[in-house]
Amino acid sequence: MKPSRLPIFFIVATVMIDAMGIGLIMPVMPDLLREVDGGDLGAAAVWGGILATTFAAMQFLFGPVIGSLSDRFGRKPILVISLIIMAFDYVLMAVAGSVWLLLIGRVIGGITAATHATAAAYIADVSKPDEKAANFGLIGAGFGIGFVLGPVIGGVLAEFGTRAPFWAAAVLALSNAVFGWFILRESVTDATRRAFSWKRANPFGAFKSIGSFPGLGALLTVYFFYQFASMVYPTVWAFYGTERYDWSPSTIGLSLAIFGIGFAMVQGTLVKPSIRLMGHRKTVLVGLGLELVALLMVAAVWSGTLLLFLIPVTALGAIGLPALQGIMSRRVTDDVQGELQGVLTSVNSLAAILAPLVMTRSFAYFTAEDAPVYLPGAPFLIAAVLMVISVFIFQMRKKTSVA
To answer: Is residue 97 part of a domain?
Structure first.
């Protein structure tokens, strides 16, 4: 590997480890929560929801803060320090004897996971304008690989006890911090360094600041609907597969692995040629269109076996998101790349907070015995409507030369 590519490799590895860290602990959370709380599976599920919402809320609040701090102090120290804190957070959860300590762990974890914004800002710093979208795709590929590997490794490690995955996640985070300290070159220069301001670092101030750039308000709205609609997969996929196709847990795991691999391959290999062939704007539109087709397909397919074969097709729409990020990154100045990525992290988190409420309730309503019509695919249809709205907003916004 060329030395010049090592920093990008570190960034992709950081995102992958973030995703793996989340996935590693998923298989043991039900047993761990029952172990520390003493309740039944239902009570564990309630606490699991509280922990997940807390994690997302911290990302929402601290995404712009972490991003703005990296604009002021540089990407390298923020990334390395966050990885070290993340490692100690996993240690805290590994030794936690109460659900309240686990809750504190998720608060800290949500804050440190906001470093996704810093990772994306580093990519924006070191990429040429026409390379940004493709390199954002590499971040998506890293996340997809981590999404696949995390639960698999976590399930294996769970055989050694409910705490083993946390120790493994801690070792991964700390090892990557050491790796980053030695190979990462700072990308923020004196010319692009920006003073830190709490007025702009809070999510609402950051939204206002970033939204003041021409055309970014509409693009942020498209990004929010895109992320909101995409949340249908992690939110109701397992319930949908169980209800409609009578899938077993192993089949659900297989389907998620297939999707994760497809997502990683699309973002890692197809984004760059798509943008070279169609440009940023058309790539976004094609991505949104493919997402719409995929959502309608999932809602309509009657055979679980057929859907397993079609899952790679549903990942093709992933070409659109990096292109959209590339357009937004090219719209702002170099000294606010961290702030922009922090805002995008907050938008992701807001979608992660709100979408499960809409998607799970619609699924429950249309699968209930007294439902006006039996429609387990209702959440996917709602997501499809949001994709249509995204296309409309994206088309209606004022066009500029960078799109």
So the answer is: yes
CATH number of the CATH domain containing 77: 1.20.1250.20
Cα–Cα distance measured from residue 385 to residue 372, given in angstroms and rounded to the nearest whole number? 20
* Phi, psi (degrees; rounded to nearest 5) at 119: -60, -45
Is residue 403 in a domain? no
User: Exposed, middle or buried: residue 216 (CB in 10 Å: 0-12, 13-18, 19+)?
Assistant: buried
For 213-264, what is each residue's pLDDT tens digit? 777 888 999 999 999 998 888 778 878 888 899 888 678 778 877 888 888 8
Average pLDDT, the chain: 83
Q: Looking at the domain assignment, is residue 298 inside a domain?
A: yes
Distance in angstroms (rounded) separating the CA atoms of residues 84 and 100: 22
Which three-class secondary structure string do you get for the chain? CCHHHHHHHHHHHHHHHHHHHHHHHHHHHHHHHHHHHCCCHHHHHHHHHHHHHHHHHHHHHHHHHHHHHHHHHCHHHHHHHHHHHHHHHHHHHHHCCCHHHHHHHHHHHHHHHHHHHHHHHHHHHHCCHHHHHHHHHHHHHHHHHHHHHHHHHHHHHHHHCCCHHHHHHHHHHHHHHHHHHHHCCCCCCCCCCCCCCHHHHCHHHHHHHHHCCCCHHHHHHHHHHHHHHHCHHHHHHHHHHHHHHCCCHHHHHHHHHHHHHHHHHHHHHCHHHHHHHHHHHHHHHHHHHHHHHHHHHHHHCCCHHHHHHHHHHHCHHHHHHHHHHHHHHHHCCHHHHHHHHHHHHHHHHHHHHHHHHHHHHHHHHHHCCCCCCCCCCHHHHHHHHHHHHHHHHHHHCCCCCCC
Per residue in 386-395, pLDDT (tens digit) is: 999 999 999 8
Alpha-carbon gap, residue 291 to 104, rounded angstroms: 36
Q: Which of 30, 61, 20 is nearest to 350 (CA)?
A: 61
Domain count, the chain: 1
Give the Cα separation of 89 and 83 in Å (integer). 10
Full domain range(s) for residue 85: 3-184+213-396
Distance CA 403, CA 395 (A): 11
